[in-house]
Specification:
- The protein has 3 domains: 2-247, Metallo-dependent phosphatases (Purple Acid Phosphatase, chain A, domain 2), CATH 3.60.21; 251-327, 2-Layer Sandwich (Translation Initiation Factor IF3); 328-382.
- It contains 9 helices and 18 strands.
- It has helices at 20-44, 63-74, 96-102, 172-175, 184-188, 264-275, 297-314, 341-355, 358-380; strands at 2-6, 48-51, 80-83, 110-112, 119-120, 127-131, 157-163, 165-166, 179-180, 192-196, 202-205, 208-210, 228-233, 242-247, 252-261, 285-295, 317-321, 325-326.
- The strands form 4 sheets. The chain has a 6-stranded mixed beta sheet with strand order 4-3-2-1-13-14, with helices on one face. It has a 6-stranded mixed beta sheet with strand order 5-6-7-10-12-11, with no helix packed on it.
- The N and C termini lie far apart (71 Å).
């Protein structure tokens, strides 16, 4: 028997640092990935997909957002999708799960597990699912504890699914909320404990696994966790599962720290470095660059052209922290002509920069912008 394990879809999630166009693309992909998960289940011959909580980002999504994932799962009528509440979409009296049932919006191939009790996965009763159910955002009790004594037929395959923090793993302060015993699988005789809440793949032990979110949703140095699903294959009720991870995410989130620019070659190398993340699909990249350094007037114009304009247009999102400063001197003023109001303004700003003090930073930014605007005007002239 095989299952696909996924979690933390967080349909309806917003990202405050992106523009409206990028936000629409990111939200759409959190729906599109459901199709890739269904295709993976078919490819692997897995009749069941376990979604270990946080299907939705909020407890009160719009009607459209509420129904959209259901319609995506409906398209895979040969796959049974098993959903449990998470801390973002706990089973509250007027929450998402009540609304779905009330509005008859749940397809026949989707099963909502809203009470902690064993559920048969097959007609013969050889495999059973033991769901843990969050009825509020946070609880201090281990909702998987009931699994120890939950009755299933002798020799049956027991699979647990829960959303929370494994005690003894990760941040101990967070583990006080929605705690899960690290040895729950062993205590409850589970062949597998499918977990949600951690957004990257993490294998706690041979039978306890976080699948992570199927579409990456955060930056991390060298690439963030997530963007995968887990396929678990079972040879029997006591054998450890055979696990494999499969990429399902489309977007690549990458943070580059301590990027120091001092020359035109550095600028060109930075653009090449970012594009190399996905050379044939730069539109799948979200890049966060921490930039510093000092550039001359011409190279500062090159930075704006290659990074702030061209690269930004190629990617789904370019997030910049910091910026290269302007290394300008008296000789650079000649670019503005020998006389005139622009030259006079630039001379005054340069004097403020060289004098230092509280106004120097503002003066340098103004001088930088003046040179860039002057360059734009010159390039626009026939």
């Amino acid at each position: 028997m095989k299952i696909v394990h996924t979690s933390d879809w967080q349909i309806g999630r917003t990202f405050s640092f992106v523009d409206d166009e990028a936000l629409g693309a990111l939200q759409a992909e959190r729906l599109n990935v459901i199709g890739r998960i269904g295709a993976l289940a078919r490819q692997e011959g897995a009749p069941h997909v376990l979604v270990a909580g946080d299907v939705y980002e909020h407890e009160t999504p719009s009607e459209r957002t509420l129904r959209q994932p259901m319609e995506r799962m409906r398209q895979f009528a040969d796959i049974t999708w098993h959903l449990i509440p998470g801390n973002h979409d706990a089973h509250t009296p007027q929450g998402v799960w009540t609304r779905l049932l009330r509005d008859n919006a749940v397809p026949d191939n989707v099963r909502l597990h809203l009470s902690p009790a064993p559920v048969a996965l097959d007609a013969g009763g050889q495999a059973w699912l033991l769901p843990a159910v969050l009825q509020r955002r946070h609880t201090l009790s281990d909702l998987t504890a009931y699994m120890n004594d939950a009755p299933t037929p002798e020799g049956a395959l027991r699979i647990g699914v829960a959303h929370g923090s494994v005690v003894g793993f990760g941040n101990e302060d967070e583990a006080q909320h929605n705690p899960i015993a690290i040895d729950r699988a062993e205590q409850a005789g589970l062949a597998y404990l499918a977990l949600g809440d951690w957004h990257g793949f993490r294998q706690i032990n041979a039978r306890t696994v976080y699948a992570g979110t199927p579409e990456v949703d955060r930056f991390g140095t060298g690439g963030a966790g997530g963007g995968e699903c887990v396929v678990a294959a079972f040879d029997g009720p006591t054998s450890p599962p055979r696990l494999s991870t499969h990429r399902t995410g489309r977007f690549i989130w990458r943070k580059l720290e301590n990027v120091v620019l001092t020359s035109g070659a550095d600028i060109e190398a930075l653009e090449s470095r970012v594009r190399a993340i996905a050379p044939e699909q730069p539109e799948t990249i979200l890049a966060w660059l921490e930039v510093s350094g000092m550039l001359g007037v011409e190279n500062l114009a090159l930075y704006e052209s290659l990074i702030e304009r061209r690269l930004r247009s190629a990617l789904t999102c370019l997030r910049l922290s910091g910026a290269p400063g302007l290394a300008a001197g008296v000789d650079d003023l000649d670019m503005l002509g020998a006389f005139g109001p622009v030259r006079e303004a630039a001379s005054a700003l340069l004097a403020q920069v060289e004098a230092g003090g509280a106004e120097a930073v503002v003066a340098q930014e103004a001088l930088q912008r003046l040179f860039l605007l002057w360059g734009d005007v010159r390039r626009a002239q026939p």
